[in-house]
Design brief:
The chain is of the alpha+beta class and 458 residues long. Helices cover 42% and strands 22% of the residues. Helix 1 packs across helix 6, helix 2 crosses helix 4 and helix 10 runs parallel beside helix 16.
Length: 458
């Protein structure tokens, strides 16, 4: 396969590099000059993929860290770091937004580029670290020092491949591979193809990579363990889920079996509402959709709460005798959350068996018979009672439970519960698709729910 042709498409052109370099140098200059004018002891530095030369054309995000001395208080670092970031965005006629990681930072769009301004401590060694972001400068320095010039292209191929199959990104929404992890994989295996071959043949849950030979890999129990070369007490792959690791392994096998340049571009979705409706009807399951307003919290806080709510709903209905086939969730992060439950069993008989004590347990036997009277009977040496279910329909169970006096039976994300109590809609999915205005993102969510391996094959 002609990898050079692919690289010509994903590698930044000289003109794009020049534009980015000019912009970040100007931003750093503004930060440093503003700090000097305001008597702030801080210095800006470029980090991330742009600094390392491992960014894909058209996908550049500029990450500028604002370094403070380690004797700066946490409050001062936040206050002055955010001030410098906001001032820089203001000077450049951009719009600033406050976001949160291990501590607050400022982001904005400047000249069409996403730019993050992150306050951090200027640490000399990892023992001085006060927050997770303090490692980032060391990460950038390590990759610049260790990654061979020709390996930057290998990183681009790996990132582009991962993006197209949906496994790139360490945020909770994805649960995939971080950019720094991709760079370490290339440093470890040397080339894109060797990463895929080793993942395809060797990777299993608990697989370990320890570039600096710290010997701490066994301390972790995540699906993939890649000990941070600059911090022996951190697994760079901690955010990688078993699902995304497995998807990457299978996509690697598929690609090695039949190489295709289509694995380096986003696969175009051709979604048809009628096809989705017909497929859900064909399955003969019962799918319901819970819709409610999204709370105004950062995305990295929102997605874990949605997933917690989804899983708790599944456990709740199954504890009550209903059987789910699968579930999923979606949000536009600002206005709406959808939780989908697909049932194999959504209607139950009125009566069920309640198993009691063995006949040899005299005290418990008497209490059981006293409670259930003629409804109690023997099955071999154990008492059983015929009891009526409170809910024989899954939808009715959820409608009853999503009320102020019973909502505590389900474990909701702390920012979600209030929004649900304020207002929600519980739909039969087919009726929802027939009657509501479905946007493109919601259609894609349902399509990918029905075709889970769609991104992995070409």
């Amino acid at each position: 396969m002609d990898y050079q042709k692919i690289l010509n498409q994903i590698r930044p052109k000289k003109s794009e590099e020049k534009k980015i370099h000019s912009l970040y140098n100007h931003l750093i200059e503004i930060i440093n000059e503003t700090a000097l004018k305001n008597n702030i002891n801080a210095q800006a530095v470029l980090v991330g993929s742009v600094a390392k030369g491992t960014w894909i054309s058209g996908k550049a995000d500029i990450d500028i860290f604002i370094k403070f001395t380690t004797d700066t208080s946490g409050d001062e670092l936040k206050e002055k770091g955010l001030f410098l970031g906001k001032e820089c965005i203001k000077i450049m006629d951009g719009k600033s937004e406050l976001r949160y990681a291990s501590h607050p930072y400022v982001t904005g769009i400047i000249n069409g580029y996403n730019v993050d301004f992150v306050p951090c401590y200027d640490i000399k060694n990892i023992k001085e670290m006060k927050s997770a972001v303090d490692r980032t400068i060391a990460h950038t320095d390590y990759v610049i020092k260790t990654l061979k010039p020709e390996q930057a292209d290998e990183v681009l191929l790996l990132k582009s491949f991962m993006k197209s199959i949906g496994t790139y990104g360490s945020e909770f929404k994805v649960g995939g591979f971080a950019g720094y992890l991709c760079e370490l994989l290339i440093i470890n295996y040397d080339t894109f193809l060797k990463v895929l071959r080793n993942a395809s043949d060797e990777w299993k849950p608990g697989y370990q990579i320890d570039l600096s030979e710290y010997g701490t890999a066994s301390s972790y129990n995540e699906p993939l363990v890649v000990v941070d070369p600059v911090d022996k007490n951190r697994n760079v792959a901690a955010a990688l889920t078993l699902q995304k690791m497995s998807e990457f392994v299978i996509a690697s096998r598929n690609f090695l079996n039949k190489e295709s340049p289509s694995y380096f571009i986003q696969k175009e979705l051709d979604v048809d509402l009628k096809d989705i409706i017909e497929e859900f009807k064909r399955r003969s399951t019962k799918s319901i959709l819970l819709s409610f307003k999204a709370p105004h919290i950062p995305a990295d806080a929102l997605y874990p709460q949605i997933k917690k709510t989804e899983k708790s709903m599944v456990h709740f209905v199954e504890r009550n005798g209903f059987k789910t086939f699968n579930s999923d969730s979606w949000t536009d992060e600002k206005n709406k959350i959808l939780i989908l439950l697909e049932f194999e069993t959504w209607q139950l008989p009125l009566i069920k068996k309640h198993h009691g004590p063995p006949i040899w347990s005299f005290d418990h036997e008497e209490k059981f018979k006293e409670k259930y009277h003629e409804k109690a009977f023997l099955e071999e040496d154990r008492w059983v009672a015929e009891v009526e279910r409170e809910h024989i329909n899954a939808v009715n169970l959820l409608e009853t439970t999503l009320s102020p006096d019973k909502i505590g039976l389900i474990k909701f994300g702390k920012h979600i519960k209030g929004n649900l109590l304020d207002e929600y809609e519980l739909y039969d999915l087919i009726e929802f698709l027939d009657s509501q205005d479905i946007n493109k993102d919601q259609l894609e969510f349902l399509f990918l729910y029905l075709h889970k391996n769609w991104k992995l094959c070409r």
